Amino acid sequence: MEDRSLTSTENRRFDRSDNACSTANFSGFMENSKTENKKLVGVMPRIKRTNSETPLLVVDEVYRKRWHIQGVIGKGGYGEIFLAIDVKRAEEVAIKAEPKHRRGKLSKRMILEQKVLLKLQGKPHVPVVYASGHDERLNFIVMQILSVNVGDLKRQSPVKRLSRTTVGRILQQSIAALRDLHGAGYLHRDVKPANMCFGVTQKTRHVLMLLDFGLIRRFKEENGDLRPPRKKAGFRGTQRYVSTRVHARLEQTPCDDLVSLLYSGYELLIGELPWKFLEKNDEIRRFKEDMQTPESDFLSHKGDPFHEFGRHVFFLDPFAEPPYHDLQNTLKALVGGKKLVDPYDWEDNYQEVLDESTSSKE
Ligand SMILES: Nc1ncnc2c1ncn2[C@@H]1O[C@H](COP(=O)(O)OP(=O)(O)OP(=O)(O)O)[C@@H](O)[C@H]1O
């Protein structure tokens, strides 16, 4: 095994041989016995050894006699994501933990996330869940360890953006992830680069995974019909990425996840969304509304595959099933003959996007 300094603040890549052990049953949570042959080769997240003052899980402690906590690898608005070693299987896992109570109320967010993640097990763009459950203080999900998120992979690029072929493939895979999720009857409602990671094993390092099912909502009845829309829906999502329909508090449908995906792709391609520095909700909404008018600069870009994709997405019928396959096909020219398994920017020292930048200056 390579030397892995856990105090390092750099992203790490390392190789590790698999050493899967048998599974055991615990009370109070479910366990998935599926384990994949592990050899970690992807862009591993940074580990912070320092916890917050009131840590959800304590570094160096063994949680539930099973997971040796190594450090924090991610933080969201609700909880924290830890790197841990599963002492039974001798392999790295990620543990997402959230307090059970929020502002004095029982938090249902992670309970729903646990349920949906379990339902989606076996889908290629969803992380493998090894266990999930709760104790008196927190809810937790033990899952497959993934790479640095795509937003951070963009931030690490020397030109703070990603190449067209990398973005095209991220979008094609995200469309597949959304097709599977929508097919199961759920909307994500928080599609953004920070909620996308790649696998870190040889087999999964080119597979995009969609994360964070905390804002998920069922949009179909059990019989497949659309649930009747509410007159006014609450705001759910991240202001920068939500569609104009969400700004208008309309009931979300699959097209709104796809608009968030379009904005995510635009951000990855150009570096920052034009409304990044606007603070007022109305100003952001107006900017987005202008962008989707047929005479906008964005939609006047004829012949460019990303703008073609934008045209498709902006004019989707909110109440019809999106043409996922056609949308993926629109992106073929952006991908330019690269395969999903060919290296992505971060595996190639961002050379392609550096070359794109140089040629656009000439
Ligand atoms: N399985 C994983 N492996 C590696 N990193 C992960 C994993 N799950 C989450 N992360 C990292 O942690 C970050 C936060 O995760 P997540 O979005 O699930 O948390 P959250 O508390 O629900 O966040 P939010 O406030 O955006 O809703 C992600 O952006 C990602 O970088």
TrEMBL record:
It holds the Pfam family Pkinase. One of its GO terms (molecular function) is ATP binding. Its EC number is 2.7.11.1. InterPro entries: CK1_Ser-Thr_kinase, Kinase-like_dom_sf, Prot_kinase_dom, Protein_kinase_ATP_BS, Ser/Thr_kinase_AS. ATP binds at residue 96. Keywords: ATP-binding, Kinase, Nucleotide-binding, Serine/threonine-protein kinase, Transferase. This is non-specific serine/threonine protein kinase. Coiled coil: none annotated. Residues 67-335 form the Protein kinase domain. Belongs to the protein kinase superfamily.
